[in-house]
TrEMBL record:
Listed Gene3D superfamilies: IL-4 antagonist (De novo design) like domain
Designated name of the protein: Small metal-binding protein
Secretion signal, residue range per the UniProt entry: 1-21
Alphabetical UniProt keywords: Signal
The keyword S-adenosyl-L-methionine appears for this protein: no
Keyword Signal: yes
InterPro entries per record: SmbP
GO MF terms held by the record: metal ion binding
Domain of life according to the entry: Bacteria
């Protein structure tokens, strides 16, 4: 009976970590899209704000993600960091391009959840 309870608890833990990854990835995607919108409008401070929030969520999702999804989330996080770096330097166009690349990686990571 104890083994069955342990197995059930382990399965629930595995399932819940995948849900946490999806929640963080969804939030990362939302913020990354907002960063792109603000970047296209030339609003560098808002691009930076959303890119930083997206980076935090992408990193949190990457911690519990696996395989291809993890690779895409890591690549998205790298692009978001570049967007932040370029935005800080005042290069809003380049920062927006990196944010767009991050959106594509995060979307791809969401499509490969396993």
């Amino acid at each position: 009976m104890k083994k069955l309870a342990s197995v059930c608890a382990g399965l629930l833990l595995l399932l819940s970590t995948s849900v946490f990854a999806e929640d963080h990835a969804s939030e990362a995607l939302k913020h990354a899209n907002a960063a792109v919108e603000h970047g296209k409008a030339g609003h560098t401070p808002l691009l930076l704000e959303h890119a930083k929030a997206a980076l935090e969520d992408a990193l949190a999702a990457s911690i519990v993600a696996k395989s291809v999804a993890k690779n895409h989330l890591d690549a998205g996080a790298k692009e978001l960091q570049e967007a932040i770096d370029q935005g800080t330097l005042g290069h809003v166009g380049v920062a927006t391009s990196h944010a767009e690349a991050a959106v594509e990686h995060i979307k791809a990571g969401n499509n490969n959840k396993k």
